[in-house]
Design brief:
Length: 262
């Protein structure tokens, strides 16, 4: 195999898996570890990956890397729809319920499901509170819902309302359930996101709710980004699309987190 072809294959593996190891690549291509390291150095120089101890990671796994809302909307669509269906089933059919929807593309899939929500009994109400401008617009099409939007500064990259005013409002609320998105969920580091201001808003959501349900596709498991906004002990349920690793599963169990596989 020529070096150019090998580089292309390594780049594909990093993109698909998020991380590759020097030993694994050496075995896969029947080359020396030194050759692998030269390959990784060339690919890093080309901006296709970032070298780390023992291997390399995808550039979107850097702790401050963050795609825009529009870029993320087309990723892991099937997983997001499955998570949304499972999350919808967790909303209780009671006369008066309140939920908080965090901004994000997985929570947005749940918002889409809620556009067809209707009360089981006449007079039943569901209040939905969100800090997402696009989700507020989506939810406003369902006249059966009561809809509140958190006020504050709008972060352009995610169209999320964040900042001191938003966190102050959230601190005065006590919704029944908060559905929270995350960029990473890690055994030791907990839940994290790249932006400090958005992290502060997520922390306020977690602390406000009576029950915290995290919606995260399998690509988020085992990942750390820059700012932790919650520990595993602060969440009640994780809805995801694959069994967590043995290490993460043990940490979730120790923290009392229920895992729902969608």
């Amino acid at each position: 195999m020529f070096a150019e072809e090998r580089h292309s294959r390594i780049a594909e593996l990093v993109s698909a898996q998020g991380r590759v190891g020097v030993n694994d690549l050496a075995e896969l291509f029947s080359i020396t570890q030194e050759t692998v390291r030269r390959d990784l150095a060339a690919l890093e120089e080309a901006g296709q990956l970032r070298r780390v101890h023992g291997g390399a990671v995808s550039v979107d796994r850097l702790t401050r890397s963050e795609l825009s809302l529009s870029e993320r909307q087309s990723q892991h669509l099937d997983e997001k729809h499955r998570i949304a269906t499972a999350a919808l089933a967790l909303i209780p059919n009671v006369p008066r319920a309140s939920i908080l929807l965090d901004s994000g593309t997985t929570t947005a899939a749940l918002a889409e499901r809620l556009t067809s929500w209707a009360p089981v009994n006449t007079g039943d109400e569901l209040l939905v509170i969100t800090n997402s401008l696009p989700m507020a617009a989506t939810l406003s099409t369902n006249t059966h819902l009561l809809l509140d939007i958190v006020g504050g500064r709008v972060r352009g990259l995610t169209s999320a309302v964040v900042g001191a005013r938003a966190t102050e409002q959230l601190g005065a609320l006590r919704p029944d359930i908060a559905f929270i998105g995350t960029n990473g969920l890690h055994t030791d580091f907990g839940l994290s996101t790249p932006d400090p201001v958005e992290a502060a808003t997520k922390t306020a959501m977690v602390r406000a709710a009576r029950q915290v349900i995290v919606l995260a596709d399998a690509s988020k498991l085992g990942t750390e980004t820059l700012v932790r906004f919650a520990t595993l002990e602060e969440i009640d349920t994780l809805v995801t699309t694959a069994e967590p690793s043995a290490e993460l599963a043990a940490a979730l169990a120790a923290a009392g987190v229920e895992v729902v596989i969608a």
